[in-house]
Amino acid sequence: MLAGQAAQYGFPMVISWYLLVRMEEKLEKLTIVIEQLRLSLK
User: Fold this and answer.
1) CA–CA separation, 2 and 22 (whole Å)
2) What are the structural domain ranges in the chain?
3) Is the pTM of this model over 0.70?
C-alpha cells in the first residue's frame, strides 16, 4: 500500500518538479531576449 501511494504521488511530483525547473530556465532566457529586443527597437 505504501509503495502504491509513493508511485501514485511521488512520480507526478518528480515529473512536475523536473518540468518546472526546465521551464524556469527557458523563461529566464526568453526574458533576456525580450529585453534585448526592446532595447534594439528604441
Assistant:
1) 30
2) 1-42
3) no
